[in-house]
């Protein structure tokens, strides 16, 4: 029996997501589950014999440095807050980038489906030849198809990465404009410290410049052009999601 029957066609359907808000580094802190949350509580056991504690490394002694010359104290903080994800969600330019990236990914998904259908047909043709050609000939055909599957996967991963890179480049233009707008808004309000709203437990509306920054961004940069999705030699490709392992 052919060894190829143990291999499945693993070329995935390409249905990738792209969210402009994820580009902003303004979300809250991620708290990993504790050991008590991730594992069931252990059953009570008899106490183990006392073991000798491992030797602890000596703590370095903190040096006693001389005092520095006195400098001018910083100004009193005048605080503002902004939600960058909300700005990007309402940005017409970011919405256009997302739409263009999704359009390119949909076309790539159709191309991947065509490639998958072709590989499945080749696999059936090889399986139909079992018992009709020699084992060495069958193994050669199987190996050639496995190589084709691997090369096809790599090709589509690179194409998808190129689409992602193009989208990120376009979002980079929006980010640069937004940084300038935040500085402009802070100066207009006399603010000297702008915090991410998602990391602030409480604030009043007068601190928030999100709506003003959004309006200014849409006025100054209503759209950006997404550059072509080009696969370059040696381009880094993010590992694909493993999915459910099928």
Q: Tags for this entry?
A:
mainly alpha
Low-confidence stretches: 4-15, 24-42
The helix tally amounts to 5
Distance between the termini: 23 Å
Our Rg estimate from Cα atoms comes to 28 Å
Percent range of helical residues: 40-55%
Coarse structural class: mainly alpha
Percentage beta strand? under 5%
Annotation, overall tally of beta strands = 2
| Rounded average pLDDT | 83
Give the SSE order as H and E letters: HEHHHEH
- Oligomeric organization of the protein chains: single chain
Largest sheet: 2 strands, parallel
Strand order of the largest sheet: 1-2
Shape, per Cα inertia axes: flat
Structure, described:
This protein has 246 residues and is mainly α. It has helices spanning 35-38, 84-90, 92-128, 135-189, 210-220, and strands spanning 79-82, 193-196. Strands 1-2 form a two-stranded parallel ribbon.
């Amino acid at each position: 029996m052919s060894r190829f029957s143990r291999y499945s066609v693993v070329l995935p359907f390409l249905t990738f997501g792209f969210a402009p808000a994820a580009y902003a580094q303004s979300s809250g802190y991620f708290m990993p589950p504790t050991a008590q949350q991730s594992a069931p509580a252990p059953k009570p056991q008899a106490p183990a014999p006392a073991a000798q504690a491992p030797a602890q490394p000596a703590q370095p002694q903190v040096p006693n440095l001389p005092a520095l010359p006195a400098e001018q104290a910083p100004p009193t903080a005048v605080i503002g807050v902004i939600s960058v994800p909300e700005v990007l969600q309402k940005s017409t330019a970011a919405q256009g980038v997302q739409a263009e990236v999704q359009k390119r990914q949909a076309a790539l998904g159709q191309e991947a489906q065509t490639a998958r259908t072709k590989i499945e047909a080749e696999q059936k043709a090889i399986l139909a030849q079992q018992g009709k050609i020699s084992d060495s000939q069958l193994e050669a055909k199987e190996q050639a198809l496995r190589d084709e599957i691997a090369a096809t996967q790599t090709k589509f991963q690179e194409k998808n990465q190129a689409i992602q890179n193009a989208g990120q480049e376009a979002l980079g233009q929006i980010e640069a404009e937004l940084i300038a707008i935040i500085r402009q808004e802070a100066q207009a309000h006399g603010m000297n410290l702008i915090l991410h709203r998602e990391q602030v437990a409480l604030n009043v509306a007068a601190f928030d410049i999100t709506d003003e920054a959004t309006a200014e961004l849409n006025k100054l940069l209503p759209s950006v052009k997404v550059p072509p999705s080009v696969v370059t030699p040696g381009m880094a490709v993010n590992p694909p999601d493993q999915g459910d392992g099928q």
